[in-house]
Design brief:
heterodimer; A: 100 residues; alpha+beta; two-stranded antiparallel sheet; 16% strand; B: 388 residues; alpha/beta; Rossmann fold; 2 domains; 7-stranded mixed sheet; 13 helices; 39% helix; 19% strand; binds iron/sulfur cluster
Chain lengths: 100, 388
């Protein structure tokens, strides 16, 4: 019988002493796949007010600047909580089911 | 040259912490440990010990502060007893995995209820699974010596784990005993300044105290367990080096008249001295009895223990903590499992005594010898002297 395994297992000997980590390691740890729904923006409706940018608890919105006039969610880290869609005064964001 | 002094054992432990040049002491007073940290707070306030003394609001905060100060690279000490250790419990589990080499003196005391301030081993036994090294002193000199050795062992780069140094509450902590107080220069020879293996350093930032999910929790625990098992080698080395500097040799398993003994009593802590007196008396009457004491309790010194008991026909294992709803005490259970799995087949009886400060006398050991040699091994741990 083969041993049961978990994906991306850490080996005992590879762990740093004291189970520490270098800061900034969350950049490499992409949490976007925890998401079941994604925010989809309708740029026609967006008034570039910035509510989504400020309310997102994960800080994943990036200001695209005065020319583009919208905010873009980094889907590597968006967890699909829906807060941006809820707060958007123009209902410009729709939470859409992720396809498996 | 060491100076011979008459000193309360708690004060001697505090003086050892001073000789070890501890950087941080975070503690909360609790009977019967209080004199240790009270004396340390005086030493710090009087400028005799250059350390930060953190008077916290609870033992939970005491251990939290200790983990923080140890993670900041400070030589760290605290002391507690009974309910205090119970209140530390959450943080006690964290210190080993974070590899913070804290030295904790425990003046062993019964756990409530009923409320009881006297001695037994229920406090230390309730944290036996946590990853801390654990050693036991039997008298005042050992309490001082093992406090010094504790810093040396815990901080060894190959160990880097917290350690508890256990003294029996009152029967050790409050006794005035003749103690050889070493010179600072001798201590410095044995105990080098602390070189932390990992610490919070703004030039090389790290995060300590992380989440570990199903993919690595087992591995993180195993890495700590590996370090704990590996620590025995360092304990033995530190005891040998201690002997070279101070002329007193300690062993992970201590023995007394055990070589030709048919019956061996297994004990821990200060009752071992009473047991030795009882054994002398029984030997005078021709009984082949000896004693094996666990100086090191965690990691369990398996090879040394098996070597010490290999020729015995009967083992009488003393426990000082009641495991309710289980047939054996913690020491009895572990000895049975180790010895029977090794292939040895002595009769192993388990005796519970000295709970909540109940006196342990020479007659108790004679009774235990009688029961252990009666040819009838009881399945259940016997509570010696219980009135029912
Ligand atoms: S769904 Fe939540 S996490 Fe994702 S962008 Fe919106 S607010 Fe941020
Ligand atoms: S909250 Fe809505 S309207 Fe405001 S910037 Fe974000 S998407 Fe545009």
């Amino acid at each position: 019988m083969t041993k049961p395994t978990v994906d991306a297992m850490a080996k005992v000997g590879d762990l740093p002493m004291g189970f520490t980590a270098k800061p900034g390691s969350t950049v490499a740890f992409k949490t976007g796949d925890w998401r079941s729904v994604r925010p989809v923006l309708d740029r026609e409706k967006c008034i570039y007010c910035g509510f989504c940018y400020f309310y997102c608890p994960d800080g994943v919105y990036q200001d695209m600047g005065k020319d583009e006039k919208y905010y873009k969610a980094d889907l590597d880290f968006c967890k699909g909580c829906g807060i941006c869609a809820h707060e958007c005064p123009k209902k410009a964001i729709t939470m859409t089911l992720e396809e498996v | 040259m060491a100076k011979r002094v008459g000193m309360e054992v708690s004060i001697a432990v505090a003086e050892a912490v001073k000789l070890a040049d501890a950087d941080v002491i975070a503690a909360y007073p609790i009977t019967p440990q209080t004199h240790i940290v009270e004396h340390l707070s005086e030493l710090v306030a009087d400028g005799e010990l250059d350390a930060a003394y953190i008077p916290v609001e609870s033992e939970h905060s005491a251990m939290s502060s200790c983990i923080g100060s140890s993670a900041a690279g400070a030589r760290t000490f605290t002391a507690t007893s009974s309910q205090g250790l119970a209140l530390m419990n959450e943080m006690i589990y964290i210190a080993p995995v974070l590899r913070t080499p804290i030295v904790l003196a425990i003046a062993n005391r019964a756990l409530s209820a009923p409320i009881n301030i006297w001695n037994d081993h229920s406090d230390i036994m309730s944290v036996r699974d946590t990853g801390w090294l654990s050693i036991f002193a039997e008298n005042g000199q050992e309490a001082l010596d093992l406090t010094l050795a504790s810093f040396r062992i815990a901080e060894d780069p190959a160990v880097c784990l917290p350690i508890s140094m256990n003294i029996d509450g009152f029967t050790l902590s409050h006794f005035i005993e003749p103690i050889l107080m070493p010179e600072k220069a001798e201590v410095d020879k044995f105990l080098p300044p602390y070189k932390p293996q990992l610490w919070l350093d703004i030039k090389n930032p790290i995060s300590i105290g992380l989440l570990g999910g199903p993919e690595c929790y087992t591995e993180a625990r195993k890495a700590t367990d590996d370090a704990l098992w590996g620590a025995k080698r360092v304990v033995i080395k530190a005891f040998d080096e201690f002997n070279q500097v101070f002329g007193r040799q300690y062993h992970v398993v201590e023995t007394y008249r055990h070589e030709d003994a048919e019956t061996i009593i297994v004990s821990m802590g200060s009752i071992s001295e009473t047991a030795m007196t009882a054994i002398d008396e029984m030997r005078d009457q021709g009984q082949k009895i000896g004693l094996v004491r666990l100086r090191l309790w965690r990691p369990f010194p398996e090879e040394e223990f098996l070597a010490a008991v290999s020729k015995a026909k009967n083992l009488a294992v003393i426990d000082r903590h009641m495991v309710m709803g289980c047939s054996s005490g913690p020491v009895g259970l572990e000895v049975k499992s180790l010895v029977y799995n090794s292939g040895l087949r002595p009769g192993i009886s388990n005796f519970l005594l000295g709970l909540g400060g109940r006196d342990v006398t020479r007659d108790d050991f004679k009774y235990i010898h009688e029961k252990a040699t009666s040819g009838q091994v009881q399945a259940r741990c016997e509570i010696v002297g219980v009135f029912e």
